Amino acid sequence: MGKKHQAASKKSKHAEKGAAAAAGSSGDAKEERQKGGKQQRRRNKEHRWAVDDLERELAAVGLRIKSIEPDGNCFFRAVLDQTEGEGGDHLGLRRRVMDHIEQQQEHYRLFIEDDEPFERYVSRMRKEGVWAGNLELVAASTLLQRNINVYQAGQPVWHIKFAADAPVLHLSYHDGMHYNSVRNAGDYGSGPPQPLRLGGGGSGAAGPAAVAQAGRSFGS
């Protein structure tokens, strides 16, 4: 075999190996995408089950879940739906809540988790799309002078208390990652929600029927 033929043969073998490696890499990537897709579908299904369970619990007492956009701003959007109705300035509310936390840092810095510096936490939480946590719940309750009831599937109602006679905001919380707004079953308006009218009996301590009695409390 001549030198040219040997070189061509080597080049062909290298190309075959490269193609095989690329095919293997492509196959691995495809498998990872499929695996990721399955995991996401499973999470979506579990989330749907949790929403369905809570929808049934709330329907038993004459309430419904109003869906809020899942864009990382859902807590602020849900609070605005409860205070103003649709289309409120969620970035403005986020800014006001974080201003309040910053101004009252001697009180709130004690609740920062994971040893994150207070200034870094506030800076991070000011950004659009960053999920709100328990600290923002309590701060919003204090800033807006509202009590907040948080409903979760199969759990006692969580009460964030500002004052005994303060108006109440009603939110649902799903899978530890998303907030929706809770309204009367027949309330499909775009403005502020109608006052809640609880009916039905619910079942067990976990049912949301006992809004004023059961559940955890987190004072501000």
From TrEMBL:
One BP annotation, GO: protein deubiquitination
Annotated CDD domains: OTU_plant_OTU7-like (cd22771)
GO molecular function: cysteine-type deubiquitinase activity
Stretch list, region Disordered: 1-48, 184-220
Biased composition (Basic residues): 1-14, 36-46
Sequence ranges assigned to domain OTU in this UniProt record: 63-185
Comp. bias (Low complexity): 18-27, 206-220
Family under the similarity heading: Belongs to the peptidase C85 family.
PANTHER family: OTU DOMAIN CONTAINING PROTEIN, OTU DOMAIN-CONTAINING PROTEIN 3
Protein name per UniProt: OTU domain-containing protein
